[in-house]
Design a protein that fits this description.
It is a single chain. The protein has 296 residues and is mainly beta. It folds into two domains: 127 residues, Jelly Rolls, CATH 2.60.120.550; 141 residues, no CATH class. It has two helices and 22 strands. Strands 1, 3, 19, 20 and 22 form a five-stranded antiparallel β-sheet that branches. The longest helix has 15 residues.
Length: 296
């Protein structure tokens, strides 16, 4: 029995940090040998919003103005970060007003934990400057009729926020919009605020689990057949994931002579996933069929 240690020195230098190659000092003959993951140490550092995931765009329409499409920079976001980005976009385009030092925006995105949902609020925009309010120099102007600005979610961002696609809010022209009968996920209050709740479970991290795929094995019960282990982070983003399985799940190495092993990180959809932090250590254990060994 012996162990193999892979770390950042084994990474393929393509900027993805998702492929590691272990080269044996000499070619090795494997016959009736089994391999298992002994431990994994790495940082929770893969993006949940990116161009590759196609979940990085939303739209804003201020009354009487052209719809703007916003591309979210690739990154790791929580709902509060997306709300901050929406407010930043509103500031950049003048879509707000200020009363006593407080900015008022047309939208608010927040977590509704009791409903296990993301909640989007859109607020009624008045037709003239409220008492005591000021507007920025790039303010686009008040609408001729009270209404709400429109917020739209594009492509896979709907899945992340938990809205069925396509998703867009109502303009509530003249404060005349009312949620459809029997609709419990859209509400309206006396001030004309429209609140939308997720109608499907939000997947703020599309890759809540990632898979380790190893060359030289053939697991007939998994797809792809190279899957040897799954990592389910129980830490916050940016923290260290430290896993040591209580019992090894042995996979048979395909009989043959090899000079290397290749380990890949795959996302939930089994496609390669971009790992931001290269600092990682993966330990694999190899045994022959006569050895009886489990983790303890």
């Amino acid at each position: 029995m012996f162990v193999i240690v892979l770390n950042q020195t084994n990474l393929v230098q393509d900027g993805q940090n998702n492929k590691l190659i272990y080269k044996f000092p000499n070619s090795v003959l494997f016959k009736d040998h089994y391999i298992a993951v002994s431990s994994v140490s790495m940082y929770y550092s893969w993006y949940n919003i990116s161009t590759i995931l196609d979940n990085n765009k939303f739209q804003i329409t201020w009354p009487g103005q052209t719809t703007i499409t916003v591309t979210i920079p690739d990154g790791i976001y929580e709902v509060k970060d997306l709300n901050n980005l929406i407010q930043f976009t509103c500031i950049a385009n003048g879509y707000y007003w200020t009363i006593a030092g407080t900015n008022y925006y047309p939208f608010e995105l927040l977590v509704n934990p009791s409903r296990y949902a993301v909640q989007l609020n859109t607020f009624l925009i008045p037709t003239s400057l409220p008492t005591g309010a000021t507007v920025p120099g790039n303010f686009p102007g008040w609408p001729g009729t009270t209404q709400n600005a429109i917020f739209g979610v594009l492509a896979n961002l709907t899945t992340l926020l938990g809205y069925s696609s396509p998703f867009g809010t109502a303009d509530n022209l003249n404060n005349s919009y009312f949620p459809p009968g029997g609709q419990s996920l859209i509400a309206k209050d006396a001030a004309g605020t429209l609140s939308y709740l997720s109608d499907i479970s939000p997947q703020v991290q599309p890759n809540g689990s990632i898979y380790l795929s190893l060359s030289n094995i053939n697991n007939p019960y998994s797809s792809p057949s190279s899957i040897i282990y799954a990592i389910n982070p129980s830490v916050s983003v940016g923290e260290l994931i430290s896993e040591r399985p209580p019992n090894y799940s042995w996979a048979k190495l395909i009989d043959g002579t090899y000079n290397e092993l290749r380990l890949n990180f795959l996302g939930s959809d089994k496609s390669p996933i971009n790992i931001r932090d290269p600092n990682m250590t993966i330990i694999l254990t190899i045994k022959n069929k006569e050895e009886n060994y489990n983790a303890s």
